Amino acid sequence: MTDILISTSSFNLDDNPGIEQLRAAGLSIATNPFGRKLTEVEIGDLLTDSVVGLLAGVEPLTGQVIANAKGLAVISRLGVGLDNVDQAAAKESNIGVLSTPDAPVDAVVEMTLGLMLATLRQIPAADRQVRDGKWPRLKGRLLKSKTVGILGLGRIGSRVASLCCAFGAHVIAHDPVAADTDSAVKRVALADLLAQADIVSLHMPYNAATHHVINDESLAAMKPGAILINTARGGLVDEAALLAALQSDRLSAAGLDVFEIEPYNGPLRDLSQVVLTPHLASSAMESRRQMEHEAAENLYAGLRKAGVIKNGERS
Asked: How do residues 86-98 score in pLDDT, each as one tens digit?
């Protein structure tokens, strides 16, 4: 019998105070047996009636999955976004949903800057050519000389904006919701951002309203030769439209850490001007450790609030 399911693809159970509290309460813990992102069917099968708490990754926690998880009381997500969780279904089933919004910020921000620099300076292309016995004199471009457009000024987007300013870049941003965070960052309309930015970096949540916010129309509106960076969610980008824009040289490069379907096996892999990473922006050791600790502590607190744990023991 499993009381706590860890569905995220990896999780270090050692030296984690929250895990120790859960075990001390008499709860048994099972981990993801596949070591990868679970499918809807797989997570549904693993959420047996005995599972009261879920330490979740990015697997699809759909309304059907949640409705069938009869014993589930709390979902504690490792990470910021909750777009993979049907929150309305969770609310209807009286399941608490928690996340770790602060823990991954620094890791995602640094990965975003890394992708910007990798695409501007053609670092992966130079590496490949040196390994092939060549000594290329590739001419890159400076971040300092560029206008960076930030779509989404939440925790991550605002920090990316600040660091780009520190490099000497001109930073503009579009976010109809977030408050002003940095006087050096000029707020503009989306159309103006797309037309002016040399680099467009995505940091918005994914939902029905933002699905394929980067599409044929928005790509056509972007500055010729611009670079697209996405460390947010794959569904923000129409990958077929992006492929066409890169093949036609409308865009000069892209740096992508997230994809609509993961693992990604599509044609963007064949383009040398695209830097691809396997959804690891938050996977810095320090940030991952913090996420795991916070998620486990959130789960313990959530189970106490739900009455599953009373006086330090499972009720």
From this structure: 999 999 999 999 9
As a dihedral over the C-alpha atoms of residue 145, residue 129, residue 229, residue 11, rounded to 10 degrees, the angle is -130
**pLDDT score of 172:** 97
Domain 105-276 has CATH 3.50.50.60: no
Q: How far apart are CA 75 and CA 53, in angstroms?
A: 6
The stretches in the chain having pLDDT less than 70 are: 180-182
Name the β-bridge partners of 310.
313
pLDDT in tens, 92-144: 999 999 999 999 999 999 999 999 999 999 999 999 999 999 999 999 999 99
**Where in 251-290 does DSSP place strands (E)?**
251-256, 274-276
Q: What topology is assigned to 4-103+284-314 in CATH?
A: Rossmann fold (3.40.50)
Q: Where in the chain is the domain with CATH 3.40.50.720?
A: 4-103+284-314, 105-276
Alpha helix ranges (H) inside the chain: 17-24, 40-46, 63-68, 87-92, 105-121, 123-131, 155-166, 190-196, 216-221, 239-247, 285-305
Task: Judge contact between 147 and 197, C-beta under 8 A.
Answer: yes
233 counts as catalytic:
yes
- Catalytic residue selected from 159, 170, 203, 233: 233
- Three-state secondary structure call for residue 28: coil
262 is an active site residue: yes
Contacts of 22 (CB under 8 A, 6+ apart): 3, 4, 29, 53, 296, 299, 300, 303
Active-site option among 170, 279, 288, 293: 279
- pTM to 2 decimals? 0.88
Place of tokens 């797989």: 42
Closest CA to 55 of 15, 91, 3: 3
